[in-house]
Amino acid sequence: MRTKRTFQPAGNEALEDRSVPSAGGGLSSVLTRVSVQDAKIVAQAFKTFDSIYKQDVASILLAPGTVDPSANRANFDAAVGAALNNLNATIDSAISNLSTSATLGAQIENELLGPDSATLQSKLASIPTPKVASFGYLRQFDAVSDRVITGYKLTISGQVASAPVPTPPSSQVSGTVVKIDLRAIHQAFQSFSHIYNTDVNMILLPRGTKVVSNNRAVFDSAIASALNALNGQIASALQNSLPPSLASSFAATVQNDLLTGSQTDGLSLQSRLANLATPTSVNGTTPWLFRLGSTMNINFAEREMQTQFGAAVTAYNAGL
């Protein structure tokens, strides 16, 4: 069980981690599942990549004696590309024992590599180059890259951990499956939180912004894409573990809770986040309130979805 930490928003700090729902006495059986073991290997592979990335920052981008880091950026990005290819190969090997390894491997590769703006490679390449090779700029560069890499680690580890768990459609949904799915929902929301916070810092409130409202439309568009990805991740995880009828009906509930267009009364998470007042500056009280309001809405949406999931499973089992 992860250690619970308290949210203390300040400056450009990330949204807080949340405690993982307890799996009780059945946790040992969950952790022995092949896909969960594979997810641990994936998390370790990301840890190795992060270490290599930091070494490349120090030895290539901001190498001792560097006057203009931008002159080193092309070599740095090439080294990061090679490290990402190694990360992808390690993950591909780790998940080779899964029945969905071919499609999942292709999906993960598309999330990690290539010029598309949504890949990890593009997100890292878009981080502004430090102006000078100083400790302060190094800390800032590392902080932004850490948030980006952590978001992808959580997303991809969650995808691997929620690989198919066959459940006979005619049988009741077991407590073990419920615990697995609640964990998958939590991991998906945790990944979204990291992506949301990264977009706050890189799109809505980047350093040097004078008029924050000028960035709001692009920010809201990025959050809409992240919410669609969250919706798809949860639906996919539940489809792999639940009887088809329950998976289908609850997928509609998930979409209704998350996306504008599904809700007509402004209660979707997308609507509630879009309705938060735009900060008037990069620093001060208004961005603090924006981050706090975002955290409260995201946490509420997760708790509400977990409650709805429990009620849906109870109703399904009672109807058998």
Give keywords.
320 residues, mainly alpha, 2 domains, 0% strand, flat, disordered N terminus
Amount of beta strand = under 5%
Question: Which structural category do the helix and sheet elements fall into?
Answer: mainly alpha
- DSSP, total strands: 0
Sheet with the most strands?
Answer: none
Helix content: 55-70%
Low-confidence spans: 1-32
Strand and helix order: HHHHHHHHHHH
Oligomer: single chain
Count of DSSP helices?
11
Molecular shape: flat
Describe the structure.
Helix content is 65%, strand content 0%. It has two domains: 32-149, no CATH class; 165-320, no CATH class. Helix 9 runs antiparallel to helix 11. The protein contains eleven helices and no strands.
Describe how the helices and strands are arranged.
Layout: H1 27-31, H2 34-61, H3 73-94, H4 101-112, H5 120-125, H6 135-161, H7 175-204, H8 216-239, H9 244-258, H10 269-274, H11 285-318
Helix pairs in contact: 2-3, 2-6, 3-4, 4-6, 6-7, 7-8, 7-11, 8-9, 9-11
How would you concisely characterize the structure shown here?
The chain has 320 residues and is mostly helical. The protein has helices at residues 27-31, 34-61, 73-94, 101-112, 120-125, 135-161, 175-204, 216-239, 244-258, 269-274, 285-318.
